């Protein structure tokens, strides 16, 4: 009798012991994404609604919607670092002289960095659509590296900084190809 | 002698060039027992510690860790966990790549970033029994 109870408890324990996945609502109004359990037979179990949960035993995946998020998961998500912030700096064309309005933005960046332990500052260069993709990739990383130098001179720690060139892939304003545009020739500073 | 000097100079050049390429993310917070295992060595963690592909994030009974990656992905590692950063490739210019994480035990909270958006199932999470494709964005994996 006691043996049967122990076996029942063991079975129950194994039932609980399978890995779980839980899809949460998107962050701060962002849409909920999707999580897909890819099974060996090529089948997919799609979780695409908030609080859909998959229990993934070795041979069997079961999906259900949970009523609420466990407190332990709430504590877990509270451990996440805050989302990155993005700032845009504008310079006198062809120079590393910051426009006066960007000075205030630089102060915001400084405060943001100070509030994040282990902060990183990624300087991302963007171009307009004049010229070839390759030239714009080169130009954007040159620009980002130049501005990284400006930030080092402004007292930002070297080891927190990195330079990335995005070329013309992410325009601020959609212009079509080969259009000069001052708003697209910009440097974005991502603090994370 | 000259060969040695050339070699030393090359080694210095490589060593100073490699961190920028090798770095995939950084630890942003840690509490309790938490460490990074790299090639069998146990590294102490603190905010700002750089992570590389292949690193294993390990926490004890009361341990937790917050991590960000260069593509904007964010991780929360819960207590009693072991999470391996199996594959991380990211083209910073094109912002495309591949990211495979193994949750060997414990719990992992995720907000996905650019890699997950760069292609179908470009970001994957493995558990001892399953493989998941990440199509965005916030989720929890628990491996008891």
Task: Note down, in words, how this protein is organized.
The complex is a heterodimer of chains A (192) and B (144). Chain A is 31% helix and 23% strand. Chain A has helices at residues 2-16, 71-78, 100-114, 133-153; strands spanning 20-23, 35-38, 44-47, 52-56, 61-65, 85-89, 121-126, 161-165, 186-191. In chain A, strand 2 and strand 3 form a beta hairpin. Chain A is elongated, with a radius of gyration of 25 Å. The model of chain A has no long low-confidence stretch (mean pLDDT 89). By secondary structure, chain B is an alpha+beta fold. Chain B is 17% helix and 53% strand. Chain B has helices at 2-22, 114-117; strands at 23-31, 34-38, 41-44, 50-52, 56-59, 64-69, 74-77, 82-91, 96-111, 123-127, 130-134, 138-143. In chain B, strands 1, 2, 3, 4, 5, 6, 7, 8, 9, 10, 11 and 12 form a twelve-stranded mixed β-sheet that branches. The longest helix of chain B is centred in the first third of the chain and has 21 residues, at 2-22. The interface between A and B is large, with 53 and 52 residues.
Characteristics:
heterodimer; A: 192 residues; alpha+beta; four-stranded mixed β-sheet; three-stranded antiparallel β-sheet; 4 helices; 9 strands; 31% helix; elongated; B: 144 residues; twelve-stranded mixed β-sheet; 2 helices; 53% strand; disordered N terminus
